[in-house]
Design goal:
By secondary structure, this protein is α/β, with parallel strands linked by helices. The chain is about 30% helix and about 25% strand. A nine-stranded mixed sheet has the order 11-10-9-12-8-1-6-7-13, with helices on both faces. Strands 2-5 form a two-stranded antiparallel ribbon.
Length: about 280
């Protein structure tokens, strides 16, 4: 029986969110909080693996009390258990501090039931770094496989997994040992509508919530703002793209005008260093 842990996050809906013109930061109150879309696909893939090979799916998140809603959404999708670490000491964490805190929570979950596989979404839509998953894998000393677009096989008895990774010009097939960590693409699956049974279960579900004091062998200096070597000093919307140049006249005049511009920018097209 496999035990799969999925790392999730509650994020603001970036399709609706607005920027605060005074602080140059995201106005999180301007948009509803949702389960990170990449994480929804991660949970769905974990559930599919569970049904195919047998096992249990647990989800873990770090966040304020309202993040319980994201865990309940995962229960709707088909997860079995939910855990959340919530404490003011976690506030202001960057990806390094976040991966440290989640690693400690995952280690505690592993004491309840040994973990065979960890799955994360490729990235979160409010950060777009894709660093937390690999950071967890590095701290746990397990193989990280990013940009996973297909899980071909999981073999717990022989201790391996085979996946397809998305690369620039196609995909590569990789065989890795278990336990390991997948960071999955959205294209790995389609998240269906939840069943009524799961929706009822989710509405009644209360996850296990841990504070810092509940985690073992934890270094407070590596948590939250104090444990974050990076900060976001400013966020701003990019300037709107300007319209392109419209050439007028005869076809020959248009070509001559275009060649004039290309000659002015010819250094952009030169191959340096030879072949």
């Amino acid at each position: 029986m496999l035990h799969i842990v999925v790392c999730i996050k509650q994020v603001p809906d970036t399709k609706i969110i607005k920027m605060n013109p005074k602080t140059n930061t995201m106005d999180r109150a301007s948009a509803p909080a949702i389960l990170n879309p990449y994480d929804a696909h991660a949970v769905e893939e974990a559930v599919r693996i569970k049904y195919k090979y047998g096992g249990t799916v647990s989800v873990i998140t770090m966040g304020p009390p309202p993040a319980v809603k994201a865990i309940r959404k995962c229960i709707e999708i088909g997860a079995d258990e939910g855990y959340m670490i919530s404490d003011r000491a976690f506030a202001g964490a960057d990806t390094l501090a976040t991966s440290y805190a989640l690693t400690k929570a995952i280690e505690k979950i592993g004491q309840i039931q040994a973990i065979d596989l960890i799955i994360c979404g490729k990235m979160t839509i409010d950060g777009d770094t894709g660093q937390v998953g690999p950071g967890i894998a590095r701290r746990l000393d397990i193989p990280p496989l990013t940009s996973v677009k297909k899980v071909q096989e999981i073999n717990k008895d022989e201790g391996y997994a085979i996946v397809h990774r998305k690369i620039e010009d196609g995909h590569e097939v990789i065989k890795t040992s278990l336990p390991c960590l997948f960071a999955v693409e959205k294209e790995i699956n389609e998240v269906p509508y939840s069943s009524l049974t799961n929706m009822i279960k989710a509405a009644r579900y209360n996850p296990t919530i841990w504070a810092v004091k509940d985690l073992e062998d934890i270094d407070i200096k590596q948590l939250g703002l104090k444990g974050s070597p990076t900060i976001v000093s400013k966020v701003w919307a990019p300037p709107k793209a300007k319209g392109g140049t419209v050439f007028e006249g005869t076809s020959l005049e248009k070509v001559n005008e275009l060649m004039k511009i290309l000659n002015e920018k010819k250094e952009l097209f030169e191959v340096k260093g030879g072949v």
